[in-house]
Amino acid sequence: MARASYPAYYTFWHILGEYALKLSAWLVLFFLILPILVIIPLSFNAEPFFSFTQGMLQLDPEAYSLRWYQGIVENDNWLLAIKNSFFIGIFATLIATTLGTLAAIGLSSDDMPFKRAIMALLLSPMIVPLIIIAAGMFFFYTKFSLAGSYLGLIIAHAALGVPFVIITVTATLSNFNRSLYYAGLSLGASPIRTFFDVVVPLIRPGVISGAMFAFVTSFDEVVVVLFLAGPGQRTIPRQMFSGLREQINPTILAVATLLILVSVLFLLALELLRRRSEKMRGLDDTTR
Amino acid sequence: MNTPGTFNDASDHYLQFKAVQKSYDQVTLVVKDFNLDVSQGEFLTLLGPSGSGKTTVLMMMAGFESVTSGDILLDKHPITRTAPYRRNIGMVFQNYALFPHMSIAENLAYPLKVRKKPKAEIESQVARFLALIELEAFGNRTPGQLSGGQRQRVALARALIFNPSLVLMDEPLGALDKKLREQMQLEILRLHKKLGFTVIYVTHDQTEALTMSDRIAVFNDGVVQQCASPDVLYEQPSNAFVADFIGENNFLPGVVEHVSDDIADIKVSTGEVIRATRVDCGDSGSDKVTVAIRPEKLFILPTDHEYDSAITVKLTDRLYVGDFLRYFFELPDGTEIVVKYLNDHAAPRIAVGDEVQLVFRARDSFAFSPM
Questions:
Q1: pLDDT of residue A283
Q2: Domains of chain A as residue ranges with CATH
Q3: Burial of B52 (0-12, 13-18, 19+ CB in 10 A)
Q4: Does A109 touch chain B if contact means CB atoms closer than 8 Å?
Q5: Would you state the pLDDT for residue B10?
Q6: Of the CATH numbers 2.40.50.100, 3.40.640.10, 3.40.50.1100, 1.10.8.50, which one belongs to the domain with range B248-368?
Q7: Residue A175 sits at the chain B interface (C-beta within 8 Å)
Q8: Which of A130, A271, B87, B189 has the fewest CB atoms inside 10 Å of its own CB, making it the most exposed?
């Protein structure tokens, strides 16, 4: 690695500033990442403790085990929570993505009245404190007997996911050249056909990343679940929450490690998709 | 290349605008009372400064803007109530508007696919048009892999491949550099000659309009100022705006002294009386007029050219442009006059500050009411 060469006009203070900047950046990274990384080895702890044992520190193979992972598989509560999380997450994502994409397209039109007000309203789940939303939803959904049901949770999580989809799709649409839509019409395709043949393929990266955000939002949401879910709808975060209070053992760490893995896989998938779609566009400036 | 006058009188009313108006806010008219007859196979250009309403007219034809009042007829059928995708009008956009996620061949095939043509026919048509624009080897590439000129050729082919009743071009060469633009002008004309389609071409580049069009409709202020073949537009402008907008012109302010038939005697600020062709100026004495004379129609005395008017001016500057010379004169009231001379042995040798007489013929000078 080449040594960083500083511009000739740099004084001692400039260089000191550079080092201070680098140091603070590393510190931030350290405090953000370390708590997450620490969980991973601890989840392989052979003892029911939340700390490193003497054996673990000496890298004794005996001190490590997969017993907490086995604990997940053997525990019906955990299995149900995992199933629920995916079930609710996937359906909430589908609803949020469809509605969010359509909303973003509508809001990008020049003819749309009250654009700002509608946008603010749709984005409000992201800004209003979650506890207020959850309480409101609880009272409202109870009236429709949606509290304590899968449908209620799916709708609630969809509402929480919509803002992310709107933001990412709106960003993609701002790069979308309207004359491509006109071109589709002039070539004889109906507006709906043009939408599916031209608009959808070009905003797909935004739709996909919005969908991923929506899924993650649902996947780690706990406040709304605490209010709305019955015993049958426990999700992973909800199960972890009660696990922390009731039976303290490293099963939670094992679940957390699995969640980290899922998140990393998600991020990788997102990046791959982004690269692929960029390649498909051929780094194209005709879309601008 | 153009046959002036061919389309002027014998229009077959293929495309007709009848009193078309457009307003965005229901208060101001962007297009006011637009009337035009276009013949089948004609290359008609809408030329005008930006904001003159020419693009709005194009958008109304394509159906992307509604018509506030009036009618547009294509082949005798009103199209104002037809959806854009049912009009069968091809359009070439300034930024090409090629679908970036489709290959070149897919882009060309798209209008045919939408029209549910048989697969074999689509393939042969695509191959034919790829050959026509000399991009046979590029069918599998994406638009992002082509140069600007190549993309514009593809956009052109895509707008033509479905045999549209009309092709609209909205400043299609605006994004290209000068050399490429000139190549593409010839390319478009070649295809136009070969396929015989009807073109409505929008540009603000008058050189482009003059070299390409059968007729040019000069637009300003939402109104067609004059619609004529390029040579008529240049040689017989029908008002001061057209005289100023097309090519270079000198404008002399003056007052009408006397009018007989189509000749007006006009007193200019030097006190001299000149004779000019009367176009749209008033006929009573003391009406204000502006006289337009092209820089190449003015001559410095002594000259062999015939003339019937003269004005006395003072040389303020001389510009050497290589193949020709530009002389800048000034009238006592500050009006500037430019004269253009070929840079040959006949070019007059005069010094800055010299007083000379500029002469011209009445048929080369035009008296307009001032803008």
A1: 43
A2: 67-280 (1.10.3720.10)
A3: buried
A4: no
A5: 53
A6: 2.40.50.100
A7: no
A8: A271
